[in-house]
Amino acid sequence: PANNTALQHVSDDTDFVACLDSDDEWEDCHLEHAVWALERGYDLFFSDFYQLNQSITAFNRAKRIDVTKHKRIHPSEPIHEYQGDMVDQIITGNIIGTSTVVYNYKKFRDLRYLQNFKHTGPEYIFWISLAAGSEKIAFASIPECRYGGGVNIFSESSWGTDKFLSVRHEEIKWRLHLLHSFPLSENQKSNVIVKIQQSRLGFAKGLLHNLLHNGKVNRTLLLMQAKLDPKTFLLLPTLPARLAFEKLSSSLSRTSS
To answer: How many whole angstroms separate alpha carbon 163 and alpha carbon 22?
Structure first.
């Protein structure tokens, strides 16, 4: 909602919009590089960055992009043209961080974040919408942003908490939206379905854990999940056997090693 409010107040003569969360910090070169690329016909620009409390950059940690395969377009700076399908990249191994994004506002004037979604879902859909509508995408292969503390969704969603269940719920929710609202390839659909199944299993495990150890679960969240994805609850009868098998497999693996 805050991002949509900001976009609602962008003036009509604005060329580019840059995103920066309040707890993150750009390097001095970031906007200069972004404007250089966007003024040359690129619709979307992003960069490598440092995640919270990390000394290794996001690109190098995740290893989801090989920079050498993307044409360098600046004579002296490490700015590249993205080669490939960015929608596929985001779905299968996202490399974009919100606070590094700068885009052509005139082309995407009406684009907004999803309403009634929480956590990272609206960001992923926003990036995918930008990528799907962009003719050319550029990025900097050096870190141009450092993420700060602030509100960290995942650090607050540890195992055994309602927030853990909430994050799994929202993962399923935005990916179901993606399946039904975007023209995905068969491989992309399969990837999204696998991730939905992983989040579904995570929710079921978290629910069982909370019931056994805390004796309670957030009723509102439970009803929301039942309405969104009733298949989650079909996993519950199989969980004891599944967990026992996982424990045995882990034990055998440790023994053999």
So the answer is: 22
Yes or no: say if 82 and 64 are a contact pair by the CB < 8 Å rule. Answer: no
Phi, psi (degrees; rounded to nearest 5) at 239? -65, -45
Amino acid at 237: P
- Kindly state the tokens that stand for 227: 């309405």
CA 207 – CA 218 distance, rounded (Å) = 9
pLDDT, residue 179, reads: 96
Whether residue 209 contacts residue 160, with contact meaning beta carbons closer than 8 Å, is answered with yes
What confidence score (pLDDT) does residue 257 get? 64
pLDDT along the chain (257 residues), means of 10: 92 96 95 98 98 95 96 97 97 96 97 90 95 97 92 64 92 96 95 96 92 84 96 88 68 68
pTM of the model: 0.88
62: amino acid identity, one letter: A
